[in-house]
Amino acid sequence: MAQNVSMEDFEALLQESFEMDTPEEGSVVKGKVIAIEAGQAIIDVGYKMEGRVDLKEFANPGEAPEIAVGDEVEVFLRSAENARGEAVISREMARREEAWDRLEKAYADEERVEGAIFGRVKGGFTVDLGGAVAFLPGSQVDVRPVRDAGPLMGLKQPFQVLKMDRRRGNIVVSRRAILEESRAEQRAEVIGNLSEGQAVDGVVKNITEYGAFVDLGGVDGLLHVTDMAWRRVNHPSEILSIGETVKVQVIKINKETHRISLGMKQLQEDPWDLVAAKYPLETTHTGRVTNITDYGAFVELEPGVEGLVHVSEMSWTKKNVHPGKIVSTSQEVEVMVLEIDGAKRRVSLGLKQTMRNPWEVFAETHPENTEVEGEVKNITEFGLFIGLEGDIDGMVHLSDLSWDERGEDAIQNYRKGDMVSAVVSEVDVDKERISLSIKALGGDKFAEAVGGVKRGSIVTVEVTAIEEGGIEVVYEGMKSFIRRSDLSRDRAEQRPERFNVGDKVDVRVTNVDSKTRRLGLSVKAREIAEEKEAVEQYGSSDSGASLGDILGAALKSGD
């Protein structure tokens, strides 16, 4: 009977053990540390199952493991039995599952999580979030690029979860978001204590080409290069250095963006307040060239006061050259004040005004008909340009090259670099123009020859050539041609061959052409004029007297 009961009890206990819930593989179970040996903790997870876990799985990154016999821990049951009959368990996987649950809740609630940077990977770092490993991109480590992340390794600090995917096991966190948030709070507090116009002390934190960032105690302000000094500052490093303490004035605060604009020159006296009194118009002063541009040069009259010498006011003679070929940076120059615009803080200066106008000087020293000598600087289709004293040019027009040749032909006799002489014919100071004449060097032979001759004058010429169409004659060295039709009033006498070379012939001047340098001459016109004069004095052709009678009477009267 007792034996039967024992068998029944055994069967009941066996059935009960079969009916008990056994832990499901892939779940987290509780266990108890029953021994520690060979760097492993032996854990009884119940259900007559034991498993082994490396001690390092109980340690946080960079810390020693904290585990002792009797401790209750949660582990992840990967398999109920391995080849040795032991349960396959993992403390790390249990922590990961626990961490994922916690992180998903924090991510949903937009809460911060705590973790420690423990490794470096391509593009960033690995962070332990209490069992789950997250990726920290390099750009999310700090508000500014971090060159050395060594001091941050292993430190417990807050992070913001940016993105997570449990199925893929991906978590992305940011340390920068935490810093920006706390920085924004700090900025808001500091900005709240600042006001525009207030003078404060700050430390130069960074220097760029356009200015410097000044730390005002938790918030940075921009000190632009144009607000550092009243004078021109080419680069902020000229007057500032990193780490230097400076006194600045708050110029503007943008409440929305929390940007602060600072100034140093605003705390100094403005030199422009005295410019008009110190630099009257048309006074000359010595200054230093500070900057050269395509359109002119800036000249510093005193620290903080600069004027512009426009390229058109730099030289009387150099019209189309770059200002850098006239002056150089840091050169001391004498300038004249041409205009002051206090509202726009502009001073217009002149460099050429400190020197006399070379055209005025030339006009004074070289009146008309003065002979000059110079080098042929340029040859154009309309004349020659001759270099003269004072670095100016004079022009000889084609028509002023020669008396005898066409200008187009005469200009072929000249080459660039030739030294030539000429006569000043006109100086126009306003138009900066000097007209020269080469042909006038020996005087105007035509004008001298015909100086007393005018239309209607009777002159004596010498025959130099007999041609079919007429005869060539010369008067005071000036050649002329009398056409056949002008050789006589009588058509029968209009024969060129009746004249001989060397004959002296009285002719009447019908035209004086200074441009072509020709005299219009006619024997016929002289005869007609003589007849008209005789008729007027001694009778009329209507009275029946012949021309011979009238001329005979005139001749007798002359006797």
TrEMBL record:
Residues 26-92, 110-176, 197-265, 282-352, 369-439, 456-524 form the S1 motif domain. One of its GO terms (biological process) is translation. One of its GO terms (molecular function) is mRNA binding. One of its GO terms (cellular component) is cytosolic small ribosomal subunit. Signal peptide: none annotated. Pfam families: S1. Keywords: Repeat, Ribonucleoprotein, Ribosomal protein, RNA-binding. Binds mRNA; thus facilitating recognition of the initiation point. It is needed to translate mRNA with a short Shine-Dalgarno (SD) purine-rich sequence. Belongs to the bacterial ribosomal protein bS1 family. This is 30S ribosomal protein S1. It comes from Phaeobacter gallaeciensis.
